[in-house]
TrEMBL record:
GO terms for MF: 6-carboxytetrahydropterin synthase activity
Cofactor(s) required for function per UniProt: Zn(2+)
InterPro entries, per database record: 6-PTP_synth/QueD, 6-PTP_synth/QueD_sf
Enzyme category, top tier: lyase
The reaction(s) this protein catalyses: 7,8-dihydroneopterin 3'-triphosphate + H2O = 6-carboxy-5,6,7,8-tetrahydropterin + triphosphate + acetaldehyde + 2 H(+)
Pfam families registered for this protein in UniProt: PTPS
Pathway(s) the chain acts in: Purine metabolism; 7-cyano-7-deazaguanine biosynthesis
Native source organism of the sequence: Virgibacillus kekensis
UniProt name for this protein: 6-carboxy-5,6,7,8-tetrahydropterin synthase
Length: 155
């Protein structure tokens, strides 16, 4: 049998731990968050099934790095969600992508760079020097495109 312990004395600020102890290190750390959205699109100049209007349940994974703040947080996951909801998802979820994205062939390869650019733009002037390290865009559970900082920045 596995036992469990009930915590009887919660750690208290200024009694058991002090403010200056909350930040354990000064290293760059990556946090990651994923989202899904449903959208329709079709591809131009493509001979295959995808030239026809069809849809996907996409999955996006963000990898964002930064330095921890005074209490040991790089970026609150809720802030990543807020950027996603207000600045990116509104252009994607339950939309016809050929209509809502800039003029491009709506391939996963093009879309992942657009998503990267939108998130990078949202992180400008972040106090913890947050930046996008990678974005993965899954078009199906087994097929994805990826944009990485070193690829996008060095072009």
């Amino acid at each position: 049998m596995y036992g469990f312990t009930i915590v009887e004395n919660l750690q208290k600020m200024n009694d058991d731990i002090n403010y200056h102890e909350l930040k354990y290190h000064q290293k760059r750390v990556m946090v990651s968050k994923e989202f899904t959205f449903d959208a329709a699109h079709h591809l131009h100049c493509y001979e295959g099934k995808c030239k026809n209007l069809h849809g996907h349940t996409y999955k996006v994974i963000f990898g964002i790095s930064g330095h921890v703040n005074d209490i040991g947080i790089v970026m609150d996951f809720g802030n990543i969600k807020q950027i996603w909801k207000e600045q990116i998802e509104v252009h994607l979820d339950h939309r016809y992508l050929n209509e809502t994205l800039p003029n491009m062939n709506t391939t996963a390869e093009n879309m992942v760079v657009w998503i990267y650019e939108k998130m990078e733009e949202a992180l400008q002037n972040d106090p913890n020097d947050c930046r996008v390290e990678f974005i993965k865009l899954y078009e199906t559970p087994t097929s994805y495109a990826e944009a990485r900082r070193e690829w996008v920045s060095n072009e």
